[in-house]
Design a protein that fits this description.
12 strands, Tyrosyl-Transfer RNA Synthetase, 3 domains, 21 helices, Structural Genomics Hypothetical 15.5 Kd Protein In mrcA-pckA Intergenic Region, Chain A, 13% strand, Rossmann fold
């Protein structure tokens, strides 16, 4: 596959300023992709764009990865109905370091350069900015942006001059990287099209030369019609302290059958023949969840390493007789594979199922209990059982499982 063919096949083709997708096959470009340090971790949505970046690298294009130290001090207003709260320089610096560490993990083994837009903005004074950037940007172009119209229109929350100017900062990033590093292509998600075009236009107006943008579509959960990467508990983070490797693995393991083929293309580097083979076997026996298991393993390996992926994928669903042979140390080892909750000896099972994210509500938890979907130490919980008992614990521990994949470890306080 050529790079343009692979981008289309994997679902990474949306809008572009290129005359033809095949331009990417004929010309090797230096490109950039960036993340603002609005948090101390990227999310699954950022990971999709990062996987697109890996496709470009694989086909010989040269990457520059930007961390937005300057833009992070303002905050991107696009898609936001309200003004963002400004983050302190100290917090932005901390977040920057965390994002760079994640770059090093996701792009391990790849040759890339990291830049920080704070480095070229920190000594630029206001007059320089107006002359270098503001003079070349038509106000009509800025006011015409959809998010600006929404914020300024009837019922809108309004917009500050700082957020209004955000696209100028990002536009100058492209110009700076064009002049200093020969960058001629920006990669981004579909929601960044307007900000990216600002850079293309600025380069044309200032230098008379061409630069281009390639965007990937936003990933949509086909089962819900909503943006992919959200759970009832919120975003799925790449940082293990915010989304544990167990939760991360479980997220992928529980994706819907309808979208799993798309997610395999987007979130793994498996080839077409491999994915076709996996999907053929999966469709013959969907109860095997082969597609989800493969996706969970590959995504976890990329973000948390092969050792963690193997630990999660080989998590054994022990039978009741096997649990009886466990020592206290055996149970303690399980704490590395599943969430640990300290509980009272006679805790309410409905509350535990909800607290352990094994059920989304008390009503759902009760339905699981009445339907025989709950297991304690590998044994099906009797219908009507609503509380743990002393006899449920072995060496002060017990496992609580719902269905085949969702499991937590309980420890008596």
């Amino acid at each position: 596959m050529t790079v343009s063919e692979e981008l289309v096949w994997r679902g990474f083709a949306n809008q572009t300023t290129l005359a033809s997708n095949k331009d990417l096959d004929a010309t090797k470009r230096t490109f950039y992709w960036g993340v603002d340090p609005s948090a101390n971790s990227m999310q699954v949505g950022n990971l999709a764009a990062a996987m697109m970046v890996r496709v470009f690298i694989k086909h010989g294009h040269t990457p520059i990865l930007l961390v937005g130290g300057a833009t992070g001090l303002i905050g991107d207003p696009d898609g936001k109905a309200q003004e963002r709260d400004l983050k302190t320089p100290e917090l932005v610096a901390k977040n920057k370091a965390a994002i760079v560490d994640q770059y090093k993990t996701i792009f391990k083994g790849q040759d890339f350069k990291v830049v920080d837009n704070y480095d070229w903005f920190k000594n630029m004074n206001y007059l320089d900015f107006l002359r270098e950037v503001g003079k070349h940007v038509p106000l009509r172009q800025m006011v015409g942006r959809d998010f600006v119209q929404a914020r300024l229109g009837e019922g809108g929350a309004g917009i500050s001059y700082a957020e209004f100017s955000y696209s100028l900062i990002q536009g100058y990033d492209f110009l700076h990287l064009f002049e200093k590093h020969g960058v001629t292509l920006q990669l981004s998600g579909a929601d960044q099209w307007g900000n990216s075009i600002a850079g293309v236009d600025l380069i044309r107006r200032k230098t008379g030369k061409e630069a281009h943008v390639w965007t990937a579509p936003l990933i949509i959960n086909k089962a819900t019609g909503k943006k992919f990467g959200k759970t009832e508990d919120g975003a799925v983070w790449l940082d293990p302290d915010q989304t544990s490797p167990y939760q991360f693995y479980q997220f992928w393991l529980n994706v819907d059958d309808t979208g799993v083929e798309d997610y395999l293309k987007i979130y793994t580097e498996l080839g077409k023949d491999q994915i076709d083979d996996i999907m053929q076997k999966f469709k013959q026996d969907k109860s095997s969840r082969l597609a989800q298991k493969t996706l969970a393993y590959e995504a976890t390996k990329l973000v948390h390493g092969e050792r963690e992926a193997k630990a999660q994928s080989t998590q054994v669903l022990f039978k009741a007789d096997e649990y009886k042979k466990f020592t206290a140390d055996d149970f303690k080892k399980l704490a590395d594979l599943m969430p640990l909750h300290e509980v009272a000896e006679s805790s309410d099972l409905i509350g535990l199922l909800v607290a352990g994210s094994l059920a989304s509500s008390n009503t759902e938890a009760r339905r699981f209990l009445n339907g025989g979907a709950v297991y304690i130490n590998g044994a099906q919980s009797p219908v009507g059982k609503l509380a743990l008992e002393k006899s449920d614990f072995i060496h002060g521990f017990a496992t609580l499982r719902r269905g085949k994949n969702n499991q937590v470890l309980l420890k008596i306080k």
